[in-house]
Design a protein that fits this description.
heterotetramer; A mainly alpha (about 190); B alpha/beta (about 160); C alpha+beta (about 375); D mainly alpha (about 350); A: mainly alpha; 3-stranded parallel sheet; globular
Chain lengths: ~190, ~160, ~375, ~350
């Protein structure tokens, strides 16, 4: 995985390492790890599939590729209890405000996987189409992009594991909410 | 029934078909095409459906077409008993508010299809139960499938 | 002043509920404005367009090879049959002579797609009615077909195996072996479907007698595919306007007369048996020969209008091309089966309960991008 | 070897009467809360593994050894989740609803005779108290559905009200047929009577009919499939707890599994002799009572899980027809047969 969260200091580090803080954050970091471990291993996805990628998402949920091994199994119909929204399929102009409202309704530590070329950049409907939003990140901030049209179940699983790794590197005291400054295009 | 038999049968209903602008063509399509004036559309359609030996009771495709200068609607009809097929075309010159009478009183499937044609071409259908946009949002301006539709914001032409 | 006695003097007024774009039962982004009184449904008004990707506008600027790629994003569960529809229209327009081998392979893969779509429908149908395990059994069989497609066509869901003029490449050496294995496996598993769901007393009680569609209404609403055949309206395009290798195959068209939700369910289950028998008849004698008829790279259809009907898993898909002789069509219209099947939902669901509406919608087997195009 | 007895004496010797009993109560509450939490978590994991086993897949096995820590991760995540709420919701009732459901579940758990000495409250109206408690749980669901001001939640709540009121009848009546044989509502007395043969064996045919009715009504009581109309996934989305998130939702989620445990425990106590080993083979070994109790309860829980993953869902009117037109008359007739049998002394005693 691209992200390694080990914290040993590399040998050729020029400067002197000053331990951060007065040791209080040792508790915080370990609390961080526990909470992040809990969050990473029980990502409940929302029932949200718009088009063909939804079928590949259902395949990942089915018996053969089975994402319930990693704890994704409980898919919640209501956005209040879901903490991961997998945008599986094309987002159209008429659907964008609905997607934005779903995202706002979700409880706070929420993550987004843009699955499939349509969710990443409009995919095959980029040219000559008057009604497709060219990429879901015009609507909501996206954490992990899974390319493919439709991506294979293994690709979606790899995307989910990458999201787990990303959650494990989060820290509670300087938590940045992806939505702040998103509308202003920061 | 073959196309010729159909053609004679239908032209036998009306005293003189040419005078009221009813043409039969067959060359550029595999079905018999009838081009009819908007006024006689409803009357011809009801006859096509109710007449025992034509009995076109299945309207399987209703599509709006922008023929460049005029806007038109193409009806593909099929009879589930005799298994023969027919195409009825109707065209109108004025592009501001083209109106035809609805056929959804004859075939219930036309309700949705006519709403779709209105949505993409702006063709009004008189006494249609609830003629409003089906796919696009209410405040969408312009009718996308017309040839002269241009929308630079979200259409990237290649 | 109507003098009918008021039975219950608690005047219960109806209220509108929004089975919105994001709802487990709508398999995608169909929004239903339900006017309900307590649990009884008074009116269902579908609001479409949440996945309208303007495919028909795009087709006016794409060449015919590019259009084939768009069609399997429309009805992605019978994607191969959609591609076949466009290719057949183009081939008939050009009066191309298609080798026998291509027709037989197209028919086999079309029937495999139909089985894959019906197994997915059956799995999700069980989930809609509450039996959550059927989803996994349905997908187990679908995975086997996906393996066959992945090996031969290179993709699991959106295959693009058809191009105007024939097939992209020849079938994989162990395509025949794998299909035979699948047929043997599926013949033992299909009775299991009946065991688990069809003869379950709760399932039958929930399905029988609701969402009744008479034959005249089916024809007048333009219902096609299993929805029409469950009401006794014989609308199988493979029988009446046969294309590819369907005229060389003996199979019977399943017709039921009750027209209720359970009849639509049974038609699809029996259709899977028919598809199996079609594949069996063809799998052993795939004729040798070319898998591609020579066409020039830029395909220009002659002046005129062309229409081709095809029987997808959901019903009758029609491709209507108006061509002015240039390399892309002047106007292209897809007559989608789901669009007409959905239009009759209000007619059959009124008076039932919310549970009936969900069961009826499941047997209509709606794929929303196929409706919105 | 009875632990509770000597703790009891030690406490009373140490402190005056009132404080001792309060401390004892507090101690019991803490022990049962721990038991409650652990049982809840591992029941959820058991459900997901059993479901996976039915559905040809593996189920959670990556988190901790063989997935044992999976529900721990779920609990940690739910604890650290934001508690969303809607402005239009009725604030006070909205927050009160989850506690109704959890408290009733906990109160019911304290009555069960896990083994000879390991029973918190042995009140003499045991069964009656259990049935009363399980009907309070519904108020929590009704409150949740109504106060979250969401149409789907309202429909879910109304359905749960109708369902639980009608199915309480069958639960009560089927337990009543068994009480005819024991003669007392006190749970320890019931187990006492079963020393010479479990009630289901003593009462042979009517007891088996009562057990079947009880299982049907019990599954309906806990709103589990095939009667899960309250949280009908495909019809109402998330049913009555649509607007709840984070820990409030966790209460509902946990309470559903604890209710399942309670229904199974009542069945073991009344029908299968709580901690009595079959044919009295391991009577003398002291601590084995709890083991037998849990084995029987888990068997019945497995049966309820089996229901959930095979049967489709009933429609609301079929649900009521089943109760009022079929289960109720059957139950009453069964009651009369059992009464006649007890009168004529036809029950089998070992």
């Amino acid at each position: 995985m691209g992200v390694n969260n080990t914290s040993e200091i590399p040998a050729d580090f020029p400067g002197k390492v000053i331990p951060g803080g007065n040791g209080a954050n040792i508790l915080v970091t370990s609390l961080d790890d526990i909470i992040n471990w809990g969050r990473a291993n029980s990502l409940w996805s929302l029932y949200f599939g718009t088009s063909c990628c939804a079928i590949e998402m259902m395949q990942t949920g089915a018996a053969r590729h089975d994402y319930s091994r990693f704890g994704f199994e409980v898919a919640r119909p209501s956005p209040r209890q879901a903490d991961l929204i997998i945008i599986a399929g094309t987002i159209v102009n008429k659907m964008a405000p609905v997607l934005r409202r779903l995202y706002d309704q979700m409880a706070e530590p929420k993550y987004v996987i843009a699955m499939g070329a349509c969710a990443i950049s409009g995919g095959p409907f980029y040219y000559n189409s008057y009604s497709v939003v060219k990429g879901a990140d015009h609507v909501i901030p996206v954490d992990v992009y899974v390319p493919g049209c439709p991506p294979r179940p293994e690709a979606l699983l790899e995307g989910m594991l990458m999201l787990q790794a990303k959650i494990k590197t989060e820290s509670m005291n300087n938590k940045v909410f992806p939505i702040d400054g998103f509308d202003e295009g920061l | 029934m073959t196309n010729e038999a159909l053609q004679n049968l239908i032209s036998s209903w009306i005293p003189d078909p040419i005078a009221i602008g009813l043409e039969f063509t067959e060359e550029k399509s595999q079905f018999l095409n009838i081009t009819v004036q908007p006024e006689q559309l409803h009357q011809l359609m009801t006859q096509l459906k109710n007449n025992p030996d034509t009995k076109f009771d299945y309207l399987f495709c209703l599509s709006g077409v922008d023929w460049g200068k005029e806007l038109g609607v193409v009806y593909h009809l099929e009879s589930t008993t005799h298994r023969h097929q027919l195409v009825v075309k109707v065209k109108t010159e004025d592009r501001e508010n083209p109106t035809f009478d609805t056929v959804c009183t004859i075939w219930r499937t036309a309700e949705f299809h006519e709403r779709e044609v209105f949505d993409f071409f702006g063709i009004q259908f008189t006494n249609h139960p609830n003629l409003k946009r089906l796919f696009l949002t209410e405040e969408w301006d312009g009718f996308p499938l017309r040839k002269d539709y241009v929308d630079e914001i979200n259409m990237i032409i290649k | 002043m109507d003098t009918t006695p008021i039975i219950n003097n608690f005047k219960s007024e109806e209220y509108q509920i929004n089975m919105g774009p994001q709802h487990p039962a709508t398999h995608g982004v169909l929004r239903l404005l339900l006017t309900i009184d307590g649990e009884i449904i008074k009116r269902v008004e579908p609001d479409l367009g949440y996945i309208h990707r303007s495919i028909e506008k795009m087709c006016e600027r794409d060449s015919y090879q590019q259009i084939v790629h768009l069609t399997d994003r429309m009805d992605y569960l019978s994607s191969h049959i959609n591609n076949e529809a466009v290719c057949l229209t183009v081939e008939n327009a050009l009066q191309l002579e298609i080798p026998e081998r291509v027709k037989v392979i197209r028919t086999i893969i079309a029937e495999l797609t139909r089985i894959a779509s019906h197994t997915l429908w059956w799995g999700v149908m069980g989930m809609d009615v509450g039996a959550l395990t059927t989803y996994f059994y349905g997908f187990r069989d679908r995975e086997m077909i996906n393996d066959i497609f992945e090996e031969t066509c290179g993709a699991r869901l959106t295959m693009n195996y058809n191009i105007p003029g024939g097939l992209m490449f020849d079938i994989h050496p162990n395509f025949v072996k794998r299909t035979k294995e699948f047929i043997a496996h599926f013949k033992t598993k299909l009775p299991e479907y009946d065991l688990l769901l069809s003869n379950n007393i709760i399932f039958r009680k929930r399905m029988e007698g609701i969402g009744i569609l008479t034959k005249e209404d089916a024809i007048s609403f333009g219902a096609s595919g299993p929805v029409g055949r469950a009401s006794g309206y014989s609308c199988d395009v493979r029988k009446h306007h046969s294309y590819s290798a369907y005229d060389k195959v003996k199979f019977n068209e399943i017709l039921k007369t009750e027209g209720d939700t359970y009849a639509r369910y049974q038609v699809r289950i029996l259709e899977m048996w028919e598809s199996l028998s079609i594949i069996e008849q063809l799998i052993d004698n795939i004729p040798e020969g070319e898998f591609f008829a020579k066409t020039n790279t830029v395909i220009k259809l002659p002046e005129g209008e062309f229409y081709q009907k095809v029987e997808t898993a959901r019903g009758e898909l029609g491709v209507y091309i108006v061509s002015t002789g240039t390399k892309n069509p002047y106007r292209m219209k897809f007559r989608s089966p789901g669009f007409s099947n959905l239009s009759l939902l209000n007619h059959i669901a009124v008076g039932g309960k919310i549970g009936d509406l969900v069961a009826t919608m499941a047997t209509l087997d709606l794929v929303i991008p196929d409706i919105d195009r | 070897m009875n632990i509770t007895k000597n703790i009891h004496e030690w406490l009373f010797s140490l402190m005056p009467e009132a404080t001792a009993s309060i401390v004892e109560m507090a101690l019991i509450a803490v022990v049962y809360l721990l038991l409650f939490a652990v049982a809840g978590l591992y029941l959820v994991l058991l459900e997901r593994r059993v479901a996976a086993w039915f559905q040809l897949r593996l189920g959670p096995n990556r988190v901790g050894y063989q997935g044992l820590l999976q529900t721990m991760a779920d609990a940690l995540k739910l604890v650290s989740k934001e508690l969303t709420g809607t402005i239009k919701a009725d604030k006070f009732l909205y927050n009160l609803a989850p506690y109704f459901v959890i408290v009733t579940a906990l109160m019911a758990m304290s009555l069960f005779p896990f083994s000879e000495e390991f029973q918190a409250f042995d009140i003499n109206i045991g069964i009656f108290f259990l049935i009363a408690i399980s009907s309070i749980g519904v108020i929590g669901i009704l409150l949740a559905g109504w106060s979250s001001n969401n149409k789907f939640a309202l429909i879910g709540a109304m359905r749960s009200g109708v369902q639980t009121i009608s199915y309480e009848l069958s639960v009560g009546l089927s337990l009543l047929t068994m009480v005819l044989m024991t003669g007392s509502l006190q749970l320890s007395q019931i187990v006492e009577v079963q020393k010479d043969g479990w009630l289901i064996v003593q009462g042979h045919i009517p007891a088996i009919i009562a057990f079947c009715i009880y299982m049907i009504a019990g599954t309906a009581e806990t709103n589990r499939a095939p009667f899960d109309l309250v949280e009908a996934e495909s019809e109402l989305g998330a049913g009555f707890h649509t607007e709840y998130s984070g820990m409030k939702f966790a209460y509902f989620f946990l309470a559903e599994f604890i209710n399942m445990f309670i229904i199974a425990s009542i069945a073991t106590t009344v029908f299968f002799g709580a901690y009595l080993s079959p044919f009295g083979i391991t009577e003398n070994i002291p601590l084995l009572g709890v083991f037998w109790f849990l084995i029987k309860t888990l068997a019945i829980i497995f049966l309820m899980m089996w229901f959930r993953w095979t049967f489709p869902r009933l429609r609301i009117d079929q649900l009521l027809v089943l109760e009022w037109k079929y289960l109720l008359p059957l139950n009453l007739m069964n009651l009369i047969i059992m009464a006649l049998m007890v009168l004529l002394g036809l029950t089998i005693q070992f």
